[in-house]
Backbone:
């Protein structure tokens, strides 16, 4: 019997065809872990995640703000709250979006990926990343160059596994083939996936499965639209109320709000929050290895972890969700 099978209802899943287990819920450090945030709260959130069995922490070189600060703060936490726990956790990072000025600070060329990985290792204080991603397909660099650069990072001992984030299916297939030939198979795909954004269902989930890769979803709550935060307007301190950011006022349409209200009613009938139902809905998909949650506080994180208690949906509930959106 596999050792993980001895733990009833364990919140872990094998990642694709590898032997690596990832928690069904992982912690993303895209928001709330930069230098503009409260370090003590961020560190407590990270430690709370670990204490609840979240062993995977997801970074990127440009996470902050400012860019790079999430990696720097994570390094401090690894030397603080998580001191001595390096071999008990999975740390991932990425490169591919603009990070510094000039022609070499953006994209997925060999130059950028390897330089970025070296910088990220210095910021975190790590000797290697467990997973290193090409953060996007830049539309310019040949896929062969990107894939070979990822393989070079593994062969150099700077990463144990590699992944692809936001790659179109055709480019992902080419990259996966090259990575297999290099004996560094793609471990995992990462992409946006939620009840409101289901584009990956058309082809990307199947492409990951066909190539033996796992899949991890980011923005499972659609930047807060799949919570009760915007059901009655835009709160003053919410992401959408800020002048900059990934969620803008114009994205909070009446149609989205009405759909969220219908979903919220269904979630309450299941005895849970809208956020928990949205997370559970993703995790019921056997092709989804893990879901990346962001959290601004330990309390928010522990509340959303309740999603693991209700991963079953009746046929009637599935139909109601489909009607609601």
Residues:
């Amino acid at each position: 019997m596999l050792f993980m099978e001895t733990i009833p209802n364990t919140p872990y899943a094998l990642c694709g065809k590898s032997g690596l287990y990832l928690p069904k819920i992982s912690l993303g450090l895209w928001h709330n872990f930069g230098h503009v945030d409260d370090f003590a709260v961020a560190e407590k959130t990270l430690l709370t995640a670990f204490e609840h069995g979240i062993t995977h922490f997801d970074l990127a070189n440009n996470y902050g703000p400012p860019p790079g600060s999430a990696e720097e703060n994570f390094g401090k936490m690894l030397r603080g709250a998580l001191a001595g726990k390096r071999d008990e956790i999975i740390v991932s990072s990425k490169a591919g979006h603009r990070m510094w000025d000039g022609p070499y600070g953006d994209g997925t060329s060999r130059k950028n990926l390897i330089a970025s990985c070296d910088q990220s290792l210095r910021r975190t204080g790590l000797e290697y990343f467990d997973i290193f991603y090409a953060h996007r397909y830049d539309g310019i660099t040949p896929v062969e160059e990107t894939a070979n650069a990822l393989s070079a990072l593994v062969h150099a001992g700077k990463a144990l596994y590699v992944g692809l984030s936001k790659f179109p299916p055709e480019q992902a297939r080419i990259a996966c083939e090259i990575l297999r030939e290099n004996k560094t198979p793609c471990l995992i795909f990462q992409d946006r996936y939620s009840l409101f954004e289901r584009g990956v269902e058309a082809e990307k989930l199947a492409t990951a499965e066909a190539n033996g890769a796992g899949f991890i979803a980011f923005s499972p709550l659609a930047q807060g639209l799949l919570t009760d935060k915007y059901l009655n307007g835009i709160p003053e301190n919410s992401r959408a109320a800020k002048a900059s950011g990934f969620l803008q006022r114009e994205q909070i349409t009446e149609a989205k709000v009405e759909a969220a209200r219908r979903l919220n009613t269904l979630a309450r009938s299941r005895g849970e929050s809208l956020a928990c139902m949205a997370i559970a809905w993703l995790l019921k998909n056997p092709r989804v290895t893990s879901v990346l949650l962001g959290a601004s506080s330990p309390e928010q994180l522990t509340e959303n972890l309740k999603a693991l208690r209700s991963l079953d949906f009746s046929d009637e509930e599935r139909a109601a969700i489909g009607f609601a959106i």
About this structure: Residues 1-9, 240-244 have pLDDT under 50 and may be disordered.
